[in-house]
Amino acid sequence: MSEKIIAQNRKAYFHYEILEKIEAGLVLSGPEIKSIRNHDVTLEGSFILIRKGECFILNMHIKKYEYANYVAGIEETRTRKLLLHQKQIKKLGEEIQLKRLVIVPLKLYFQEGLVKLEIGLGRPKKLYDKRQTIKQRDLDRKAKSNKY
């Protein structure tokens, strides 16, 4: 299982406590795939919604492929559909409503020639949790520098 990471949402791990991870496919067009292969994609600021029993990612920025002819309806931050099983979507919807959790995109990668998106089901961190994360990161960095 060769996995080539294209983009990561590093801030997601800082702002959210990720409880569960799920792999999802994406509905994309040809020029979008070419842009993704060139690493012209950003997950910062994107989020996932469930509408009418379907899962969508919003605000994922994929730069227009410069060598492609103009294709109508392909905008850089358009809403894209996620490919998940109905049971997974139903479970995610229940978790969001009952436990007040959010769905966050974590990373975008190629797996066996297909573009996959890893999404995380998480709980927003409180301010004191974020401070603890920063403190732990600084301690780890200091310990690592003293090691050498």
UniProtKB/TrEMBL annotation:
Location in the cell: Cytoplasm
Listed GO biological process terms? trans-translation; trans-translation-dependent protein tagging
Q: What does this protein do?
A: Required for rescue of stalled ribosomes mediated by trans-translation. Binds to transfer-messenger RNA (tmRNA), required for stable association of tmRNA with ribosomes. tmRNA and SmpB together mimic tRNA shape, replacing the anticodon stem-loop with SmpB. tmRNA is encoded by the ssrA gene; the 2 termini fold to resemble tRNA(Ala) and it encodes a 'tag peptide', a short internal open reading frame. During trans-translation Ala-aminoacylated tmRNA acts like a tRNA, entering the A-site of stalled ribosomes, displacing the stalled mRNA.
Which HAMAP family does this chain map to? SmpB
Q: Which PROSITE patterns does UniProt cross-reference here?
A: SSRP (PS01317)
What gene is this protein a product of? smpB
Name assigned to this protein: SsrA-binding protein
Main location as per UniProt: cytoplasm
Please report the organism this UniProt entry assigns to the protein. Answer: Williamsoniiplasma luminosum
